[in-house]
Amino acid sequence: MRIVSGNYGGRPLKTLEGKLTRPTSDKVRGAIFNMIGPYFDGGRVLDLFAGSGGLSIEAVSRGMSSAVLVERDRKAQAIIKENIAMTKETEKFQLLEMDANTALPQLSGPFDLVLLDPPYAKEEIIKNIEQLCQGNLLSDEVMVVCESDKSVDLPEEIADLGIWKQKVYGISKVTVYVR
């Protein structure tokens, strides 16, 4: 795996061995950013189930100012630290070593881009988006990008966000919510 485009384009990304995380493939990551960007002029990213950190590192590579990555798994945290070090701009990244439910009440917004790729997607995505809205953690122009299995049907609206775009890539479905 590698960073697809931007300042870190072409640099390799490390991923976890085994089935603990499901890293987003280069192809799907590139498609996601072509769908929502493909480039940004600043802003803050929240990656709530960071895995290897590839999605949020890609977002910063494409122009986001900074990223907060949340990951509970110790092995994944070590991989994220290596991937952040590869950028040579570690000050742009903050890794919170905890689960999403612990992190959400501790976060301060606003975030302009939120990346959600949780296990057990539908239940977590709905709950997480509701918590983000209740905590005033989202900017007015926020995009919430949800990656799930293609069989998962997310509601048209969650809190004050509605589906803007939705597309299936192989076994994955990407749903983008906006205000």
UniProtKB/TrEMBL annotation:
InterPro entries, per the entry: DNA_methylase_N6_adenine_CS (IPR002052), RNA_MeTrfase_RsmD (IPR004398), SAM-dependent_MTases_sf (IPR029063)
One function term, GO molecular function aspect: nucleic acid binding
Pfam families reported for this sequence: Cons_hypoth95
GO BP, sorted A to Z: rRNA methylation
Family annotation (CDD domains): AdoMet_MTases (cd02440)
Annotated keywords: Methyltransferase, Transferase
Transferase listed as a keyword: yes
NCBIfam families for the chain: 16S rRNA (guanine(966)-N(2))-methyltransferase RsmD
Protein name as annotated: Type II DNA modification methyltransferase
Provenance organism: Streptococcus varani
